[in-house]
Amino acid sequence: MTNDAGGSPALQFEVLGPIRVRRHGQELDLGPRQQRLILALLLARAGEPVGTGEIVSMLWGSQPPTSAVNIVHRYVGNLRRLVEPTLGPRTRSCLLVSNAAGYRLVTDEKSLDLLLFRRLALEARAAVNVRQPDAAMAVYSEALELWRGPCAGASDLLAEQSDAFDAIDHECARIAGEAADLSLSSDGGRSMLRALRCMATSYQYDEALQAKLMLILSAAGQQADAIAVYHSLRRKLTEELGIDPGAELRAAYRQILQSSGTDGAQEKERRQQNTKPGREAGCESCDARSVTASPEHISQSHYDGVTHTTPITVSADDVGPTGHVRSSRYLDYSVQARWAALADAGLSVKELASAGLGPVELDVSIKYMRELVFGDEIDVVTRFEYPSPKIVRLVQSVIRRSDGELVAVVTAVTGLMEIASRRLVDNAADIWADFLRDLAVVGLASPSETEQLS
C-alpha cells in the first residue's frame, strides 16, 4: 500500500461502521449502492478472495438478472479506477487484483480498520495472559474506538442479512464482551461503559452483550438503567421473536438484583426503626382501598421468576393541562403496582387486618427521567428488598413499552405496623411470609427456589 510523506497510507478503508474510503484524509464518493456493497464485501474478507458467484448472490439473491456477471465486472472496474486513479488502460491493478479464485483487495492493518482492530485485540489478550490488566484495558479501548457501527452499514444497503458482515459484527461484540469482563474486574466497568452502551444500541438482540452492559451499569451505580435494559430486551424477545431471555441474561439480571438489595441509605433506615410512625397519611397511602382498586387501565400483572411487572396504560384522567402525566400519578402507578404484586403473592388484606397489622409507608422518593402522555403503555417493575428486620424497601422502575425508555424510579421505604401499639414490627419479612402464598414474588424465596421458578 503506497504511503504518503508522513508514513500513513495514502488510502484508508473503514468497514467497522458505514463504509468509508479516504485518500490523503479526503473522503471519496464510492458510487451506487451495489458498487458500495461489492467494496464492502471485499473489505470484510480482509484480503481473502471473493468469487463472482458470491457477489452475485449478495446483490440479487436467487434471482439475478442475465447480465449480472457483466454488471459485477463493470462495478469492479469502477472500483479499480477509484482506488488507483492513475491506472492506465489494460494495466494490471496492484490493489484490486483478480485470479481464478475471485477478486481480492490488498490491504494491511495500516490501511484497513478491521485488520488493525484484530491486531489490537490480539495484543490485549496477550497482555491479559501475562497479567497486565491496565495495558490490556488500554489496548481494548483503542480497538473499540475504531468501531462506529454495524459492519459496512450493511443493514442500510441490504434487504437481508449477510453472513460475511454478520460474522464481523459477532466478532466485534465478542471482543467488547472480553473488554467488559476485564473492565468489571479492574475498574468496576467505568472504562467500558460508554463503548458498551454504543455497541449494545446497535446489537439489541445480542443477549451476551446486553448482559455485559447490564452488569457494567449496575457496577456504575445505575441499577435502574440495568433493569430497564433487561425488561426492554425481554419484551422484544417475547413479542418479536416469541422466545424468553436466555440463561446468561437471566443470570446477569439476578446478580444485579442480589447485589443491589444490600446497599442504600441504611443509616436513614436505622433512624426510622426507632421512631413511632405518627403520619396517618403513611397508612392511608397503603390501606385496603388501594388493594381492592382495579382501574380499567391496569392490565394483567405477572411475576417472571425474577421481578414482578404491572402493565398500565396512561388514561385521560392521568393527564394535566400541559398534556403530560401529572407528577402525583407516577406515585399512584407505583402504589397500584405494589399492591398488584402483593395480590399476586396471595395477600389477604382482611386476614392482615384481623391480625391487627397494617402496612405503613415511612418514606418515598421519585426520580423523574422522561415524560408520559395519554395512551402511553408502561411496565412498572417492582422488586422487594429487606435491608433490616423492620424495613421493606421497594424499588420500582417505570418503563415505557414503546421504546424501552426508563421513565421514572420510585423508591419506597415501608414497614408493618402493629395497629394497637402504633409501632413497627421487629420481623417484617417473617410476618409477611405468614400471610403470602408465593414468597418468590416479594423476594422472600431462597435462591434455589427462585432458580427453579425461573
How would you characterize the overall build of this protein?
- There is one protein chain.
- This protein has 454 residues and is α+β, with helices and mostly antiparallel strands.
- The protein has 18 helices and twelve strands.
- It folds into three domains: 201 residues, Orthogonal Bundle (Arc Repressor Mutant, subunit A); 57 residues, no CATH class; 188 residues, Hotdog Thioesterase (Thiol Ester Dehydrase, Chain A, Roll).
Roughly how many Å is the radius of gyration? 29 Å
Query: Would you report the number of β strands?
Result: 12
Mean pLDDT: 83
Number of helices: 18
Estimate the helix proportion, in percent: 40-55%
Q: Remind me, CATH topology of the largest domain?
A: Arc Repressor Mutant, subunit A
Would you state the CATH class of the largest domain? Answer: Mainly Alpha
Structural domain count: 3
CATH superfamily of the largest domain, by name, is: Winged helix-like DNA-binding domain superfamily/Winged helix DNA-binding domain
Order of helical and strand elements: EEEHHHEEHHHHHHHHHHHEEHHEEEEEHH
Which descriptor suits the 3D outline? Answer: elongated
Tell me the structural class.
alpha+beta
Spans of at least 5 consecutive residues with low confidence: 262-296, 447-454
Strand content: 15-25%
